[in-house]
Amino acid sequence: MQKVLSSYTENEILTAEPEKLVLLMYDGAVKFIRQAKAAVREGRVEDAHTAILRSYAIIAELQATLDKEKGGEIAAGLDKSYDFMLNHLREADMKKDEKLLAEVENLLTPLAETWKTAFFSRNGNGATAEGRMPHGDAAPAQPPKPQKIEPVARVSPPADKPSISIDLRG
To answer: Which residues neighbour 47 within 8 Å (Cβ) at sequence distance 6 or greater?
Structure first.
């Protein structure tokens, strides 16, 4: 069963729109921070280290793919936030400090929720990008007009930077 879920997750990542990939990355970073906090609490040093590194890699990739030209002040603000988070993750990894991890989670979670709201919103009717309502209700009789949401982040790396592979399945 785990192999089927792994294949499903891999397929979802490989076929996702860039905006959805950013959402998956935010969700993955939060998941790994929560895993790291639990590992620190339970004294599992190696597991904490691994989870912190995975979250760090995701946030570093989010930062590397910011489109600062199109993103303007928002991208500049995200860049500073990502720097702060990465510094906290490095320190949390050295000290195995759950408080530092919680600070990163408290910054990252609202970003993930904001991205989720922007990605799934459609003309205020609450339908998701797939046309479903958030709580499983049927979609409205008239489908919403698609909105173009301009992402602040690009998922593909610039041509002059190497690509980073991030495993979100952990």
So the answer is: 35, 36, 39
